[in-house]
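Thread: quick sanity check before group meeting

JM: Hey all, I'm pulling together slides for Thursday and realized we never actually wrote out the predicted structure for the chain we discussed last week. Dropping the sequence here so it's in one place. If anyone has concerns about the input, flag it before I start.
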Amino acid sequence: MSNKTHHRYVYGLDGLRAFAVLSVIAYHLNFSWAKGGFLGVDVFFVLSGYLITSIILPSHGSRLTFDFRDFWIRRIRRLLPAAYVMIIATVVWVVLFKEELLATVRGDAVSSLFYTSNWWFIFHKLSYFDSFGSPSPLKNLWSLAIEEQFYLLWPILLAVSFYIFKRRSVVSCVVLVGILISAMSMGMLYEPGMDPSRVYYGTDTRSFELLVGCWLALVWPLKRLSAKELPVKVRKIFNGVSIVSFLIIILCFFFVSEYQTFVYQGGMLLFCLNTAILVACICHPSNLLGKLLSWKPLRWIGSRSYGIYLWHYPVIVLTTPVEEIGTQNYWRIALQIFVTFVVAEWSYRMIEMPIRKNGFRQFFKRYIPTTTLTWKKLSITRKLSTVAIFLIVLVFTAGVTGLAKGEVRHESPEKTSVKVSPNQNEEEHAVKEKKEESQQSKDTDSKEKESESSKVDEQEKSLTPPEKIFAIGDSVMLDIAGNLHEKYPNITIDGKVGRQLYEAIEIAPSYASFNNKDAVVVIELGTNGYFTDEQIDKLLSYFDEANVYLVNTRVPRSWEDQVNETLAKKAKEYKNVKLINWHKESLEHPEYFGGDGVHLTQKGSEALTELIQDAVNE
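JM (edit): ok, ran it. Output follows.
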């Protein structure tokens, strides 16, 4: 049987959705005050679990009278059209205007069409920390993939649970066990200072957020909430709890960071439980906060929050120059938000609502004529719309099938890592010296004098160079390796593309010979992600006798401030450690960086090398 009982629409939940989606947008715009904005997704998960389970559950008793087919058709009508339009539009834009992203977007688009993008990102090792250059404009669809997987499986699991356990109270206990297992999985799989992509994207490690909402629906059924006024004392307590719960969520948006270990080891679970308390309060007809959140502007944003969430990320990514990622240009941000809201409104009125009300058949009849007679009867506007749709689908197909070729960037193997020791490539240096001598013999007297003068300056700069110097780093270290070797022929360099600090800890013992008071150790790490205090302390412990120089980072990503704050703190804590402030030196010099805003040009390489040299020679 089909369950014909419709639950009461709670306008206050639209207000909560509005706060959630605005927090996510602020987070993706890299506002420093919204570092916890990613938790807006957790709010959506709890809401989805609660509302979907409320739809499935009967008003009375524990006997499910539920039409699976009708449920899944409604979910498809609600979610797929808007998402597919966004995916198609994004791929078409990339094909036409952002060819360098096509290779990335192609796989993301296909996985998103089948709502498996979260596992695609995991198995294809797309780091939670975005790669350099523009990130994938479809990356926000990982959360929708989890929700769609939930919509597919949860009705079946719930029906089986009721069939086996019969009573709603027992089923709620089973769901509670599921919540604990999922949350514990996140805590156990998470490793502090390591890439959290597996626990962040995994359906298994994020299921507890949806299940918290499901559990709430079982113990606080929406269909059974009475509209009768509560006693004055109870109502005051109820309103007080809702306000405190809401303030906790707002404070989390401001102060919680994705780099905090606690977030993955119980923090998200506590946040979701607090969200469940807030949802329970708002859903009661007597709640004051629920009425305040029903304010029309908030309701407008909340009712269109799905479209806003879909469109905001591709709009931000595709309209933000690579060199400005992580910085705030308020005119650009205002325009991005405006475009997002306009497109979301168009999607709501022209795509989402027509299909939800009338279905796919009526919608396609409007734009795709089935006969020649029908085509002739169409107005010019409708004909142009039909042709435009055909061309868009054609470009999209070319993009995802590989017919449209994107720019492929090949990384030369010899540049992915480098290890340089003082005795390396002696023959090459001898040849280089002979060439220089030959060239000098051909120079004019004036040029010789200029050369001698510059050599004197160079010698003054390089007074008493250290006998033993070691430099370890990531791809930025590779950029300056040649320049460093020219300044310090006896230097030992170990650089590798993509290296994070925990990887440096593993190889640090092999360079124990540099741990003495006469040695210099240059550490340049943090470009590829943050690290914990414990990790940097561990690395520094291997060089506690050496003179250590920490090079901070200039990387237009969210972890830049976290990394630089930690490095500055360690420079103050350790007597043998000094900070080389590359961030400050390079902040006003975009010419120091290549197209990704991270890796160095020749001028940038020279500037950083000189900065290191000045610090070492002080």
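AS: nice. The two ends are 82 Å apart (CA to CA). Strands lie at 417-420, 468-473, 492-496, 519-524, 547-551, 577-580.
JM: adding both to the slides.
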